[in-house]
Specification:
Layout (H helix, E strand, L loop, with lengths): L5 H13 L5 H13 L17 E2 L5 E5 L7 H4 L7 H12 L20 E5 L12 H16 L6 E5 H14 L16 E4 L2 E6 L4 H4 L6 H14 L1
Parallel strand pairs: 2-3, 2-4, 4-6
Antiparallel strand pairs: 1-3, 5-6
Length: about 230
């Protein structure tokens, strides 16, 4: 019998993620959003299912976000794709040399990530972007398994406080890092643990970018810093 390689393991995990229906509230919300849509996307067929990780399986840079957006990833079927958060992120990744283009529109747009992989703590779009604790716990095994298959990661960027802490706790539970108190979240903060470096960043949500809490120079600096530590 052929031994399952990393690519096969990721493919099997991704199939399990996409078919997940563990959280009734999230299933109802993601499917309702896919059915009712919004006016500007009324003619599009929504993905309406959980999202897998995306990027280079041999990546040294890992990004951990919160969850898909109802009319972004939940529509397009790919992390940080089809909304302003995705545009901000992919533009910054492109400038730092981690993406082959500066836009993220849909699954067939030709975007490729280089030495970079993106995951989320929650794989379904939650109502009002606010997941329940039990939903985070239900999704946690997917995060642990996916991170466990990314053997070359050396720098982890947490996008938002939840993404930052989810990444730290996942690596702690996998036995890769140790801490008595979780490191404090602050934009641009860096924490080093032997062969792993964690960088905190504000999430590129419109709530942060439209208000000026997160500017493009601030965001771009995070990925220049990631490149430096790599």
């Amino acid at each position: 019998m052929r031994r399952m390689g990393r690519a096969d393991s990721l493919a099997a995990l991704h199939a399990s993620i996409v078919s997940c229906r563990r959280c009734p509230r999230l299933v109802a919300w993601r499917e309702e959003a896919a059915r009712t849509k919004v006016k500007r996307f009324a003619r599009e067929e929504y993905w309406g299912k959980p999202l897998t990780g995306f990027g280079d399986p041999g990546a040294r840079l890992l990004l951990v976000g919160l969850a898909p957006a109802a009319h972004g990833g939940n529509r397009t079927g790919r992390m940080f794709t089809g909304d302003e958060s995705g545009n901000w992120l992919v533009c910054a990744l492109h400038l730092a040399g981690f993406a082959n283009q500066a836009v993220s529109l849909h699954r067939e747009d030709g975007l490729e990530l280089n030495d970079c992989y993106i995951v989320a703590a929650l794989r379904c779009a939650p109502p009002e972007n606010k997941p329940l604790p039990v939903e985070m716990l239900n999704c946690r095994p997917f995060l642990l398994e996916e991170i466990g298959l990314l053997h070359r990661v050396r720098v982890v960027v947490g996008l938002g406080k939840i993404g930052f802490e989810a990444g730290l706790k996942a690596y702690r539970d996998l036995g890769r890092v140790g801490f008595s108190a979780i490191p404090r979240f602050a934009h641009g903060a860096v924490y080093r643990f032997d062969d792993l470096t964690f960088i905190a960043s504000y999430h590129p949500s419109q709530q942060n970018t439209f208000t000026g809490k997160l500017t493009r120079p601030m965001f771009n600096a995070v990925f220049r810093k990631a490149r430096k530590y790599l």
